[in-house]
Amino acid sequence: MQEPLLYHEVHGTHGPFILFVHGMISSRAQWIPNLEALEAFGRPVIVELFGHGRSPSPEDPECYTPDNYVNEFERIRCKLGVDRWFLCGQSLGASLTLRYALYHPERIIAQIFTNSQSALSDETWDDALKLLSQRLEDEGHKLIETLPLHPSHSRHLKPEIKNALIEDAKLIDIQGFSYTGLYTVAKCSVRKMINKNQIPTLLIVGKHDKQFSPYREFAQQTMPELEVLVLDGGHAVNIDAAEQFNKVTQDFIARFI
């Protein structure tokens, strides 16, 4: 099996391995408020998406497809010598970890995901993503800084987390970001497959992300093996309600080890 291309780092020294995947315009800094607590009972494996943070920006569009991300996660698992592990996906990252669990249920013990419209949407966004790609050629980072998900727009992040996310956002590669839109986001929905889920799953919802409400309802009606917990946070619930997120994550994982 090929070596993984995605940047990844392993934290902790004992306990189960847990793969963590962030969303758009984020990085390993997404998990700053969680790592210390997570390391007390497990070994978080933090990856960064192509075009983001310290990961490369391959020229081949196929690298950005959701199916290839599944292959990359498998390469990381094999490199670590892990038979089965846990998953945790945030936003766009959740669409990728959910797909991974659907493709390889035998490799996943249980999974957690947070608010992710991209995972559960029936929209294509093709025209909007093509327009974004065209604008990126001319405007580059100036355009990325105007997007709602850019950390500079957050009013609730602690300064140390906000600054770390902003600094990592400067590492975003323009072509890699464009390809993420065109080949990852455009193809990432698992809405039509989610009824085949076989893995114990916890959806941790940030209640202030009102746009996610219909997707939460769809998941509850459609996805087998699903539990839902609502915390006092927004789209980035693992940051907004970090202490609660860490506790419910530990409690959930402890049920399977």
CATH architectural name: 3-Layer(aba) Sandwich
SSE ordering: EEHEHEHEHHHHHEHEHH
SSE-based structural type: alpha/beta
Query: What is the quaternary state of this protein?
Result: single chain
Domain tally: 1
Radius of gyration over alpha carbons?
A: 17 Å
Number of strands: 7
Mean pLDDT across every amino acid position: 96
Distance N to C terminus: 28 Å
CATH fold-level name: Rossmann fold
The coarse silhouette is globular
Report the top-level CATH class: Alpha Beta
Number of helices: 11
- What strand line-up does the widest sheet have? 1-3-2-4-5-6-7
> How helical, in percent, are the residues?
40-55%
CATH 4th-level superfamily: Alpha/Beta hydrolase fold, catalytic domain
Q: What report would you give on this structure?
A:
- With 257 residues, the chain is α/β, with parallel strands linked by helices.
- The longest helix is centred in the first third of the chain and has 15 residues, at 66-80.
- It has helices at residues 35-39, 66-80, 92-103, 117-120, 126-139, 141-144, 159-169, 174-184, 213-222, 237-240, 242-254; strands spanning 8-10, 17-21, 43-47, 85-89, 108-114, 201-206, 226-231.
- β6, α9 and β7 form a beta-alpha-beta unit.
- A seven-stranded mixed β-sheet has the order 1-3-2-4-5-6-7, with helices on both faces.
- The model has no long low-confidence stretch (mean pLDDT 96).
- The chain starts with 7 loop residues before the first strand and ends with a helix.
- It contains eleven helices and seven strands.
- The protein has a single domain (8-254), classed as Rossmann fold (3-Layer(aba) Sandwich).
- The protein is globular and about 50 Å long.
